[in-house]
Design the sequence.
């Protein structure tokens, strides 16, 4: 029984599918397809020094890691590594080898502080702490059964507000970029960064293979997008909210809930059967919205950090 770690081969469909299978088995709450894996690997800016690693046991992919620098961080030397091993192959050495390989690479490209998400399960937490990582904040994964009757009915926009979809902005998505750039600044995070490169946003976000522009719902007021709920779908009945937010000047009016409710109803009508989302445990307003929509917590992850050198 031999375990090795190597780079994912983006030209090998079997590699992409094996990576996706491991991630789905270890983290079924996040939508990930071979196309999305390839997109991230090929569209992430070069400054991020991004790598996707796989662990193989006797020729079979049993673990994965995605590692790189947070290139747009306001603090130099910040990096990330997220390691997942197929649940039936833990304690075979894949996780430890992935961590060592990732840390050596990140140190070589100038990383000083490493962040990682770890599922809130005793074995996973103990693994992170054995490798020198310290616990920080938490976040929840939430799930909603779209085949049931718990989804609140849609409601009409207030006067002066119109609901549209991202598809309506296909000719000029810059207004959505500007809204995304404003809302992302207020997302709970350990790392401060700025979304400022429109061309990079087009490549990474607007052209993401999981983005469903018909289900992504936008509230428009005063001639511009002021709130939105970004929808991902995987073509297999699964829907995920990638981002829900409101421009600062329009908060407190229920526009985020309006957009997300409409998006969920569109998703159900389109044949989606389950919806996922994620929230930082400190994001009370969004947790309240999701609870009101019928979402239930299905798992929790913990943010860990390790200082190098």
Sequence:
């Amino acid at each position: 029984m031999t375990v090795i770690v190597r780079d994912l081969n983006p030209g090998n469909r079997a590699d992409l599918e094996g990576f996706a299978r491991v991630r789905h088995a270890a983290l079924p709450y996040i939508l990930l397809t071979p196309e999305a894996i390839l997109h991230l690997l090929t569209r992430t800016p070069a400054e991020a020094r991004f790598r996707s690693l796989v662990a193989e046991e006797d020729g079979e992919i049993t673990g994965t890691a995605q590692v790189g620098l947070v290139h747009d961080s306001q603090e130099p030397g910040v990096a990330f590594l997220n390691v997942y091993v197929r649940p039936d192959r833990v304690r075979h050495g894949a996780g430890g080898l992935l961590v060592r390989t990732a840390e050596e690479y990140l140190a070589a490209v100038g990383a000083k502080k490493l962040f990682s998400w770890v599922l809130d399960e005793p074995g996973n937490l103990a693994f992170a702490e054995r490798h020198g990582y310290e616990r920080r904040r938490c976040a929840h994964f939430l799930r909603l059964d779209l085949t049931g009757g718990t989804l609140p009915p849609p409601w009409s926009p207030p006067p002066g507000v119109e609901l549209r979809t991202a598809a309506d902005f296909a000719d000029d998505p810059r207004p959505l970029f500007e809204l995304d750039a404003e809302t992302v600044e207020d997302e709970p995070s350990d790392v401060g960064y700025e979304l400022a490169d429109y061309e990079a946003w087009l490549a990474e976000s607007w052209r993401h293979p999981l983005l469903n522009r018909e289900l992504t719902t936008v509230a428009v007021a005063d001639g511009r997008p002021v709130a939105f709920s970004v929808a991902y779908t995987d073509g297999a009945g699964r829907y995920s909210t990638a981002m829900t937010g409101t421009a600062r000047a329009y908060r407190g009016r229920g526009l985020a809930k309006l957009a997300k409710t409409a998006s969920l109803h569109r998703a159900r009508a389109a044949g989606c059967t389950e919806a996922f989302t994620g929230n930082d445990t400190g994001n009370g307003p969004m947790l309240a919205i999701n609870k009101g929509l019928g979402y239930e917590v299905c798992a929790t992850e913990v943010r860990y950090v390790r200082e190098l050198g």
